[in-house]
Amino acid sequence: MSADTRVATTAAPARPERRGPSGERTVAVTSHTVLGIWSLLVLLPFAWTVVSSFKTNREIFASPFSLPSEWRYQNYVDAWNTAGIGSYFFNSVVVVFSALVLTMVMGAMSAYVLARFDFRGRTVLRYLIVAGLTFPVFLAVVPLFFILQQVGVLNTLPGLILSYATYAYPFTVFFLLSFFEELPGEIAEAASIDGASEWRTFFQVMLPMAGPGMAAVAILNFVGLWNQFLLPVVLNSDRSNYVLTQGLAAFASQAGYDVNFGALFAGAVMTVVPVLVVYLVFQRRLQGAVSAGGLK
Amino acid sequence: MSALPGTPTRVTGRGASRPPAATRKRWTFDRVSLVVVFLGVPVALYLLFVLYPFTQAAWYSLTSWSGFTSTQEFIGLENYQRLLTDGLFLQAVGNSLVLLLVVPAVTLVLSFALACLLTFGGSSTGAVRGLSGSSFYRVVSFFPYVVPAIVVGIIFGRVYDPSAGLLNGVLTGLGLGRFKDFAWLGEPSTALWAVVVVIVWSFVGFYMVLFVASIRAIPAEIFEAARIDGAGRFRTAVFIAAPGIAGSLRTAYVYLGIFALDAFVFLAAMNPDGGPGNSTLVITQQIFSTAFKEGRFGLACAMGVVLAVLTFAFTGLVLGVGQALARRNARGARA
């Protein structure tokens, strides 16, 4: 360590060590300034989007920075009805919630067995499932397309739900394993002494105890599934089944200046609002889950 | 609960090969049925929809399959040979490698710096303290991570717009008149960097939150000792905080690298056709168009395999080098 410190003295002479209270304040002010600038860089594009979503095309191009002369709520109506954001929104809700329930049920059950039952091949299974986290999904989508075709669920919402759920499954299992491992075994034992079956023990005793872990994964999965883009674009080319992200992309890539940009911004705002609400309500829990799950 | 007779108090430990809570009991019908249903159904679906496609992709990559014939003609490594001489694909690989090298490095440096400002950038009389109001910055910075990437891409596509975009408006407002009509995404020299900025922008907050948690996990006495020894905040950051969270940094580097190799969704929103002179074309876009626009599924799968090999090589390199460094440091500390 002493060698390291000497190197630093020569490498960073620009920051002399100050001990006085004025120096301390300078540091704090600098930190606040830097972080303030960063926050501005984050918020400005969103604020600009929200303001633009109330403008006409002409206003967007003529005066990109002024407030709209009249707040055009019509853009939201247009996006919702004409551009199809409304139906994409409902598709997204159906697909994301079904897939979320499915992956949570499957993930919790598998994680429970893999964490608390000892049997041959358990380690292999664990590796097999965690391996799913590391493969690039792009390698799988081409064959997946044909598998869904053969099963007969290509371009359908059930096909999309199944794909969403199975691709979120490895992460769900991975995350929940440690939660189930750390539940006290004595409680399960007490339940079995009281005559509860294994099934009952899981649903009435162990699953409720893993509640905080389940909640954390559910929120992370919700954000991930709501934002999913590649799977729907490849597996769901029927326009009436579009989910929000792909519908918005299709809307944005319409040719030339025929796009109603105000409505496009309105569509973007409406896509963000659900995740934003979930985020603001659960942000403590979400950030906690990120820092707990990401460190391994 | 541990008062139950005959139950030894167990020590909780994560990542042990045999988790402490696991029980080896008699296999009754109750237990077997539970294991079969709880594990059998999900794993079967997982095998069919996730693992089986990966193995199939490897096989298709050795065929000339177009996707529409019922049989696939085996052609060996011909697809791979073709890729070696395919200028467009090689350009896509090059662009992907640029993203792989630049995105994680910039994101990690930025998010680490911000995390340090948050955790010990505050005024400190006495112990080193965090910044007041740090939770506001955390909430705001994390926000882009929850916004769908496609929306981020669409928004920045508009931000970069030459005449009506936010960026050029701000720049000209600051008196930089030459940016009045500058097409950030339309100039071969800036297009890829404009994309890099967007990806970094959307990920910095996430890793900042991660690093704040890891820095807080470093024992406070170490910071205290460094302070007493006269280390400034910059030196504390470089020589205490950075080595202290080396594990998180490594994991973050791997995730970001894998993500940078993908980057499909951002480019689908900003430059779906590969950008000016294909300057932003990446491997994943090439896979997508080769498979679903040109119908050359065999060739697309070969590209997918190349992508997977790059991903694994990168992951192995980062984890391997990281471990070697950690071992050397440990030996150095003991000596």
UniProtKB/TrEMBL annotation, chain A:
Source organism superkingdom: Bacteria
Bilayer topology term: Multi-pass membrane protein
Pfam families to which the protein is assigned, alphabetical: BPD_transp_1 (PF00528)
UniProt key word Secreted: no
Extent of Low complexity compositional bias: 1-14
Name of the featured protein: Carbohydrate ABC transporter permease
Sequence intervals crossing the membrane: 27-48, 88-115, 127-148, 160-180, 201-226, 261-282
Sequence segments annotated as region (Disordered): 1-25
Cell location: Cell membrane
Xref: InterPro entries: MetI-like, MetI-like_sf
Residues of the ABC transmembrane type-1 domain: 89-282
CDD domains: TM_PBP2
Record key words, sorted: Cell membrane, Membrane, Transmembrane, Transmembrane helix, Transport
Family: Belongs to the binding-protein-dependent transport system permease family.
UniProtKB/TrEMBL annotation, chain B:
Record-annotated membrane-spanning stretches: 32-54, 97-121, 142-160, 191-213, 297-321
PANTHER family per UniProt: ABC TRANSPORTER PERMEASE PROTEIN, DIACETYLCHITOBIOSE UPTAKE SYSTEM PERMEASE PROTEIN NGCF
Annotated organism of origin: Kineococcus endophyticus
Location of the region described as Disordered in the Swiss-Prot/TrEMBL record: 1-21
Protein name, per record: Sugar ABC transporter permease
Family: Belongs to the binding-protein-dependent transport system permease family.
Pfam (any one): BPD_transp_1
Subcellular location: Cell membrane
Key words, A-Z: Cell membrane, Membrane, Transmembrane, Transmembrane helix, Transport
Positions of the ABC transmembrane type-1 domain: 93-318
Membrane topology designation: Multi-pass membrane protein
Taxonomy, superkingdom: Bacteria
InterPro entries the record matches: ABC_transporter_permease, MetI-like, MetI-like_sf
